């Protein structure tokens, strides 16, 4: 029982930092213009030195154009046949972090200097679903309602071939040293596997997390959806190995289906 509780505390701490970095780019984007970067076609190489693409500077922040009457809560993962074998709890805690600085750092690395987007018209964090047999196998989602122009720009950012390396660089900076819980982190790999059906992009982070009892291996999948006026991030965490593809695709299919209703 103590080991399960300790493991859950570790994964919650790590997921908070991963989510912070993911949020730094999930809702990134400019109000106008186009990012001159082709879609990603290969896995990002960990540790590579990315070269930022040359694009026009982002114009000053503008007020978000009113979206249609969409509710972010309609687009997060909810209890359904796809979540069989998982227990639902309250929404995941929003991590406290310098997310604005991270957003700007990653956007500039990808090739979007001067990035400063407006707030969404609505946002929410869905429930956390924990596997009943393996407590470190968890999934939760976030959704935001944004102008269509920002959705398009954000999709181009996460599809950039530089995105994986830029994401890793920002994450390593955030995870350096020992955190307030006495945990240390080692990023083993950050990859951009082939995009799953129904999604915009996938970033897979493999990490070793060390506490006073030892080192534990985790895999964090951050899955992005950009459709219409809705941005969704699905975070799937598993211990020791990649999340089971069939189960993960079930989560994806549920959200992709909801995104058709706008």
Topology of this protein?
Layout: H1 2-26, E1 86-91, H2 99-110, E2 122-125, E3 127-131, E4 138-145, H3 148-158, H4 163-175, E5 184-191, E6 201-211, E7 214-227, E8 230-239, H5 245-258
Antiparallel strand pairs: 1-3, 2-4, 3-4, 4-8, 5-6, 6-7, 7-8
Helix pairs in contact: 1-2, 1-4, 2-4
Can you describe this structure?
This is DUF5642 domain-containing protein. With 262 residues, the chain is of the alpha+beta class. The protein has one domain (2-30, 64-258). The chain has five helices and eight strands; from the N terminus they run αβαβββααββββα. It has helices at 2-26, 99-110, 148-158, 163-175, 245-258; strands at residues 86-91, 122-125, 127-131, 138-145, 184-191, 201-211, 214-227, 230-239. Strands 1, 2, 3, 4, 5, 6, 7 and 8 form an eight-stranded antiparallel sheet that branches. Strand 6 (201-211) and strand 7 (214-227) form a beta hairpin. Helix 1 crosses helix 2. The longest helix has 25 residues, at 2-26. The radius of gyration is 18 Å and the shape is globular. The model is unreliable at 1-8 and 19-67 (pLDDT under 50).
Strands, count:
8
Helix content: 25-40%
Model regions low in confidence, pLDDT < 50 over at least 5 residues:
1-8, 19-67
> What is the strand content?
25-35%
As for the number of domains, it is 1
Spatial gap, N to C terminus: 44 Å
Count of helical stretches? 5
What's the mean pLDDT score? 77
Rounded to the nearest angstrom, the radius of gyration is 18 Å
Q: SSE order, as H and E?
A: HEHEEEHHEEEEH
Which overall shape is indicated by the principal axes computed on the Cα atoms? globular
- Quaternary structure state of the chains depicted: single chain
* Major sheet description: 8 strands, antiparallel
